Amino acid sequence: MKKLLTVILIVILLIGGLTSVISLAADYPEREIEWILWSNPGGGSDITARTVGIPLRKLLGQPLVIVNMSGGSGARAMTYVQNEKADGYTLLFVTNTLITTIERKLVDYKLEDFMPVFMLNDDPQTIAVSAKSNIKNLTDLIVLGKKKSLKWGLTHLGGNDHVAIHTFAKIADIKYDPVVYQSGGEVMVAALGGVIDVFISNPSEIMGQVEAGSLCVIASMSEKRISVLPEVPTLKEEGYDVVFGTWRGVAVKKGTDPEMIKTLEELFYKAADSDIYRKFLKDNGMDFNVKNAEEFVVFMSSQFKVFSEGIRDIGLVK
Prior knowledge:
Layout: H1 2-27, E1 33-37, H2 44-60, E2 64-68, H3 75-83, E3 90-95, H4 97-103, E4 114-124, E5 126-130, H5 138-147, E6 150-154, H6 160-172, E7 176-180, H7 184-192, E8 198-201, H8 203-211, E9 215-220, E10 245-253, H9 258-272, H10 275-283, H11 293-314
Parallel strand pairs: 1-2, 1-3, 6-7, 6-8
Antiparallel strand pairs: 3-10, 4-10, 5-8, 5-9
Helix pairs in contact: 2-9, 6-11
Protein backbone atom coordinates (compact mmCIF):
# COMPACT_ATOMS: atom_id res chain seq x y z
CA MET A 1 0.00 0.00 0.00
CA LYS A 2 2.81 2.44 0.91
CA LYS A 3 4.51 1.76 -2.44
CA LEU A 4 1.23 2.39 -4.26
CA LEU A 5 0.71 5.67 -2.41
CA THR A 6 4.28 6.70 -3.22
CA VAL A 7 3.74 5.98 -6.92
CA ILE A 8 0.46 7.92 -6.91
CA LEU A 9 2.16 10.86 -5.18
CA ILE A 10 4.98 10.92 -7.76
CA VAL A 11 2.47 10.83 -10.63
CA ILE A 12 0.51 13.71 -9.06
CA LEU A 13 3.70 15.75 -8.67
CA LEU A 14 4.76 15.05 -12.25
CA ILE A 15 1.34 15.98 -13.60
CA GLY A 16 1.35 19.08 -11.45
CA GLY A 17 4.78 20.09 -12.74
CA LEU A 18 3.78 19.43 -16.34
CA THR A 19 0.58 21.44 -15.88
CA SER A 20 2.65 24.27 -14.43
CA VAL A 21 4.98 24.27 -17.48
CA ILE A 22 2.04 24.18 -19.90
CA SER A 23 0.36 27.00 -18.01
CA LEU A 24 3.59 29.02 -18.10
CA ALA A 25 3.88 28.64 -21.86
CA ALA A 26 0.18 29.34 -22.39
CA ASP A 27 0.38 32.62 -20.47
CA TYR A 28 3.56 33.78 -22.23
CA PRO A 29 4.46 36.61 -22.36
CA GLU A 30 3.44 37.99 -18.99
CA ARG A 31 6.03 40.73 -18.58
CA GLU A 32 8.60 42.92 -20.33
CA ILE A 33 10.76 41.33 -23.04
CA GLU A 34 14.32 42.45 -23.67
CA TRP A 35 15.70 42.30 -27.23
CA ILE A 36 19.51 42.55 -27.34
CA LEU A 37 21.29 43.89 -30.43
CA TRP A 38 25.06 43.84 -30.92
CA SER A 39 24.86 46.71 -33.42
CA ASN A 40 25.10 50.43 -32.74
CA PRO A 41 22.08 52.73 -33.26
CA GLY A 42 21.39 53.67 -36.86
CA GLY A 43 22.71 50.56 -38.59
CA GLY A 44 20.70 48.11 -40.69
CA SER A 45 20.06 45.72 -37.81
CA ASP A 46 19.02 48.51 -35.47
CA ILE A 47 16.60 49.96 -38.03
CA THR A 48 15.19 46.51 -38.78
CA ALA A 49 14.55 45.72 -35.11
CA ARG A 50 12.99 49.08 -34.33
CA THR A 51 10.75 48.97 -37.41
CA VAL A 52 9.39 45.47 -36.83
CA GLY A 53 9.24 46.32 -33.13
CA ILE A 54 6.44 48.83 -33.75
CA PRO A 55 3.77 46.24 -34.68
CA LEU A 56 5.43 43.59 -32.47
CA ARG A 57 4.84 45.62 -29.31
CA LYS A 58 1.11 45.70 -29.98
CA LEU A 59 1.02 41.97 -30.67
CA LEU A 60 3.00 41.06 -27.54
CA GLY A 61 0.75 43.06 -25.25
CA GLN A 62 3.83 43.62 -23.10
CA PRO A 63 6.70 46.16 -23.19
CA LEU A 64 9.50 45.38 -25.66
CA VAL A 65 12.83 46.96 -24.74
CA ILE A 66 15.41 47.07 -27.54
CA VAL A 67 18.95 47.32 -26.15
CA ASN A 68 22.05 48.13 -28.22
CA MET A 69 24.99 46.24 -26.72
CA SER A 70 27.96 46.47 -29.09
CA GLY A 71 31.40 45.05 -28.46
CA GLY A 72 33.59 42.09 -29.39
CA SER A 73 31.90 41.38 -32.74
CA GLY A 74 28.71 40.48 -30.91
CA ALA A 75 30.46 38.64 -28.07
CA ARG A 76 29.17 41.04 -25.41
CA ALA A 77 25.54 40.65 -26.50
CA MET A 78 25.82 36.86 -26.86
CA THR A 79 27.33 36.52 -23.40
CA TYR A 80 24.62 38.69 -21.88
CA VAL A 81 21.88 36.49 -23.36
CA GLN A 82 23.65 33.29 -22.30
CA ASN A 83 23.93 34.61 -18.74
CA GLU A 84 20.16 35.19 -18.56
CA LYS A 85 17.54 32.51 -17.95
CA ALA A 86 16.21 30.51 -20.90
CA ASP A 87 12.71 31.76 -20.17
CA GLY A 88 11.79 33.54 -23.40
CA TYR A 89 12.17 37.03 -21.94
CA THR A 90 15.63 37.77 -23.36
CA LEU A 91 15.90 37.69 -27.14
CA LEU A 92 19.02 38.05 -29.28
CA PHE A 93 19.04 39.81 -32.64
CA VAL A 94 21.20 37.60 -34.89
CA THR A 95 23.02 38.12 -38.18
CA ASN A 96 25.84 36.37 -40.07
CA THR A 97 28.11 37.70 -37.33
CA LEU A 98 26.80 35.01 -34.97
CA ILE A 99 28.53 32.39 -37.10
CA THR A 100 31.80 34.22 -37.67
CA THR A 101 32.20 35.19 -34.01
CA ILE A 102 31.62 31.61 -32.88
CA GLU A 103 33.91 30.17 -35.55
CA ARG A 104 36.70 32.62 -34.64
CA LYS A 105 36.48 31.46 -31.00
CA LEU A 106 35.67 34.97 -29.76
CA VAL A 107 33.10 33.31 -27.51
CA ASP A 108 32.98 29.89 -25.90
CA TYR A 109 29.56 29.08 -27.34
CA LYS A 110 28.49 26.79 -30.15
CA LEU A 111 25.85 27.54 -32.77
CA GLU A 112 23.61 25.03 -30.99
CA ASP A 113 23.63 27.18 -27.83
CA PHE A 114 21.24 29.56 -29.61
CA MET A 115 17.81 28.51 -30.86
CA PRO A 116 16.66 30.31 -34.04
CA VAL A 117 13.15 31.75 -33.79
CA PHE A 118 12.53 33.74 -36.96
CA MET A 119 14.46 35.23 -39.89
CA LEU A 120 13.28 38.77 -40.65
CA ASN A 121 15.07 39.53 -43.91
CA ASP A 122 18.00 38.84 -46.20
CA ASP A 123 19.60 42.14 -47.15
CA PRO A 124 21.83 42.10 -50.29
CA GLN A 125 25.33 43.55 -50.15
CA THR A 126 26.52 46.32 -52.48
CA ILE A 127 29.91 47.82 -53.32
CA ALA A 128 29.87 51.59 -52.77
CA VAL A 129 32.22 54.55 -53.10
CA SER A 130 32.06 58.29 -52.53
CA ALA A 131 30.53 60.20 -55.45
CA LYS A 132 33.77 62.25 -55.45
CA SER A 133 35.90 59.13 -55.94
CA ASN A 134 37.80 58.47 -59.15
CA ILE A 135 36.23 55.01 -59.07
CA LYS A 136 33.09 55.34 -61.18
CA ASN A 137 32.39 51.69 -61.98
CA LEU A 138 33.57 48.15 -61.33
CA THR A 139 36.17 48.31 -64.12
CA ASP A 140 37.79 51.33 -62.46
CA LEU A 141 37.86 49.43 -59.18
CA ILE A 142 39.53 46.37 -60.71
CA VAL A 143 42.14 48.42 -62.58
CA LEU A 144 43.04 50.45 -59.48
CA GLY A 145 42.98 47.37 -57.24
CA LYS A 146 45.60 45.68 -59.41
CA LYS A 147 47.88 48.73 -59.14
CA LYS A 148 47.63 49.31 -55.40
CA SER A 149 46.08 47.91 -52.25
CA LEU A 150 42.67 49.55 -51.83
CA LYS A 151 41.43 50.60 -48.40
CA TRP A 152 38.16 48.73 -47.84
CA GLY A 153 36.01 49.80 -44.89
CA LEU A 154 34.27 47.14 -42.83
CA THR A 155 32.57 46.77 -39.47
CA HIS A 156 33.77 43.38 -38.25
CA LEU A 157 37.14 41.77 -38.79
CA GLY A 158 36.20 38.35 -40.10
CA GLY A 159 32.56 39.39 -40.35
CA ASN A 160 30.13 39.20 -43.25
CA ASP A 161 31.51 42.24 -45.07
CA HIS A 162 35.12 41.07 -44.59
CA VAL A 163 34.37 37.60 -45.94
CA ALA A 164 32.54 39.17 -48.89
CA ILE A 165 35.40 41.58 -49.64
CA HIS A 166 38.01 38.83 -49.41
CA THR A 167 36.04 36.44 -51.60
CA PHE A 168 35.57 39.07 -54.32
CA ALA A 169 39.18 40.34 -54.12
CA LYS A 170 40.50 36.79 -54.46
CA ILE A 171 38.39 36.05 -57.53
CA ALA A 172 39.09 39.46 -59.12
CA ASP A 173 42.80 39.18 -58.23
CA ILE A 174 43.00 42.63 -56.61
CA LYS A 175 44.75 43.83 -53.47
CA TYR A 176 42.99 45.26 -50.42
CA ASP A 177 43.63 46.45 -46.87
CA PRO A 178 40.72 46.04 -44.42
CA VAL A 179 39.99 49.13 -42.30
CA VAL A 180 37.75 48.30 -39.35
CA TYR A 181 35.13 50.64 -37.85
CA GLN A 182 32.56 50.27 -35.08
CA SER A 183 29.46 50.73 -37.24
CA GLY A 184 28.17 51.03 -40.78
CA GLY A 185 27.58 54.70 -40.13
CA GLU A 186 31.26 55.26 -39.35
CA VAL A 187 32.29 53.40 -42.50
CA MET A 188 30.02 55.62 -44.56
CA VAL A 189 31.48 58.79 -43.00
CA ALA A 190 35.00 57.51 -43.74
CA ALA A 191 34.07 56.96 -47.39
CA LEU A 192 32.50 60.39 -47.69
CA GLY A 193 35.65 61.91 -46.18
CA GLY A 194 37.99 60.05 -48.52
CA VAL A 195 39.63 58.09 -45.69
CA ILE A 196 38.81 54.77 -47.38
CA ASP A 197 38.53 53.94 -51.08
CA VAL A 198 35.53 51.61 -51.09
CA PHE A 199 33.23 49.65 -48.82
CA ILE A 200 30.51 47.03 -48.81
CA SER A 201 27.12 47.89 -47.37
CA ASN A 202 23.46 46.96 -47.44
CA PRO A 203 21.15 49.34 -49.35
CA SER A 204 19.15 49.91 -46.18
CA GLU A 205 22.16 51.63 -44.60
CA ILE A 206 23.15 53.93 -47.46
CA MET A 207 20.11 54.67 -49.65
CA GLY A 208 19.67 58.12 -48.12
CA GLN A 209 23.19 59.15 -49.14
CA VAL A 210 22.84 57.45 -52.54
CA GLU A 211 19.63 59.36 -53.28
CA ALA A 212 21.30 62.57 -52.09
CA GLY A 213 24.11 62.00 -54.58
CA SER A 214 26.86 61.64 -51.96
CA LEU A 215 27.52 57.93 -52.50
CA CYS A 216 27.62 55.83 -55.63
CA VAL A 217 26.86 52.10 -55.79
CA ILE A 218 28.96 50.45 -58.49
CA ALA A 219 27.85 46.82 -58.11
CA SER A 220 25.60 44.56 -56.08
CA MET A 221 26.37 41.13 -54.65
CA SER A 222 22.79 39.96 -55.09
CA GLU A 223 21.48 37.15 -57.30
CA LYS A 224 19.64 39.69 -59.45
CA ARG A 225 19.47 43.47 -59.68
CA ILE A 226 18.02 45.26 -56.68
CA SER A 227 14.65 46.95 -57.24
CA VAL A 228 15.73 50.28 -55.70
CA LEU A 229 18.97 50.24 -57.72
CA PRO A 230 17.83 48.96 -61.12
CA GLU A 231 20.75 50.52 -63.01
CA VAL A 232 23.41 48.87 -60.84
CA PRO A 233 24.81 45.61 -62.28
CA THR A 234 25.41 42.52 -60.18
CA LEU A 235 28.88 41.01 -59.81
CA LYS A 236 27.54 37.93 -61.58
CA GLU A 237 26.62 40.07 -64.58
CA GLU A 238 30.17 41.41 -64.60
CA GLY A 239 31.62 37.91 -64.64
CA TYR A 240 32.30 37.38 -60.92
CA ASP A 241 30.24 34.61 -59.32
CA VAL A 242 30.04 36.22 -55.87
CA VAL A 243 26.75 36.46 -53.95
CA PHE A 244 26.59 37.81 -50.41
CA GLY A 245 23.95 39.33 -48.19
CA THR A 246 23.20 40.05 -44.56
CA TRP A 247 20.44 37.97 -43.03
CA ARG A 248 18.82 39.19 -39.85
CA GLY A 249 16.59 37.47 -37.33
CA VAL A 250 15.94 36.57 -33.74
CA ALA A 251 17.12 33.73 -31.51
CA VAL A 252 16.88 32.69 -27.87
CA LYS A 253 19.04 30.78 -25.46
CA LYS A 254 19.10 27.00 -25.77
CA GLY A 255 16.61 25.38 -23.41
CA THR A 256 13.81 27.86 -23.98
CA ASP A 257 10.36 26.22 -23.93
CA PRO A 258 9.45 25.13 -27.51
CA GLU A 259 5.93 26.46 -26.99
CA MET A 260 7.34 29.89 -26.19
CA ILE A 261 9.45 29.74 -29.34
CA LYS A 262 6.34 28.83 -31.32
CA THR A 263 4.51 31.79 -29.84
CA LEU A 264 7.37 34.14 -30.70
CA GLU A 265 7.61 32.70 -34.20
CA GLU A 266 3.92 33.42 -34.84
CA LEU A 267 4.10 36.92 -33.38
CA PHE A 268 7.19 37.83 -35.39
CA TYR A 269 5.54 36.58 -38.59
CA LYS A 270 2.50 38.76 -37.98
CA ALA A 271 4.75 41.76 -37.24
CA ALA A 272 6.83 41.12 -40.38
CA ASP A 273 3.66 40.80 -42.45
CA SER A 274 2.49 44.24 -41.31
CA ASP A 275 2.18 47.17 -43.72
CA ILE A 276 4.87 49.18 -41.91
CA TYR A 277 7.46 46.41 -42.11
CA ARG A 278 6.65 45.45 -45.70
CA LYS A 279 7.04 49.12 -46.68
CA PHE A 280 10.40 49.20 -44.90
CA LEU A 281 11.58 46.19 -46.93
CA LYS A 282 10.42 47.72 -50.20
CA ASP A 283 11.98 51.10 -49.47
CA ASN A 284 15.32 49.42 -48.78
CA GLY A 285 15.44 47.11 -51.76
CA MET A 286 14.54 43.91 -49.96
CA ASP A 287 11.95 41.29 -50.87
CA PHE A 288 9.67 39.72 -48.27
CA ASN A 289 12.02 36.85 -47.44
CA VAL A 290 11.32 35.37 -44.01
CA LYS A 291 11.85 31.95 -42.43
CA ASN A 292 10.16 30.20 -39.53
CA ALA A 293 12.14 28.54 -36.75
CA GLU A 294 12.56 25.19 -38.54
CA GLU A 295 13.60 26.81 -41.82
CA PHE A 296 15.94 29.20 -40.03
CA VAL A 297 17.79 26.31 -38.35
CA VAL A 298 18.47 24.65 -41.72
CA PHE A 299 19.49 27.96 -43.32
CA MET A 300 21.90 28.87 -40.52
CA SER A 301 23.54 25.46 -40.73
CA SER A 302 24.22 25.96 -44.45
CA GLN A 303 25.53 29.48 -43.79
CA PHE A 304 27.89 28.13 -41.15
CA LYS A 305 29.68 26.11 -43.85
CA VAL A 306 30.01 29.11 -46.21
CA PHE A 307 31.37 31.50 -43.60
CA SER A 308 33.58 28.94 -41.90
CA GLU A 309 35.39 28.38 -45.18
CA GLY A 310 35.64 32.13 -45.78
CA ILE A 311 37.22 33.12 -42.48
CA ARG A 312 39.61 30.17 -42.60
CA ASP A 313 40.76 31.35 -46.02
CA ILE A 314 41.28 34.86 -44.61
CA GLY A 315 43.54 33.27 -42.02
CA LEU A 316 41.64 34.23 -38.87
CA VAL A 317 41.08 30.59 -37.93
CA LYS A 318 43.56 27.77 -38.43
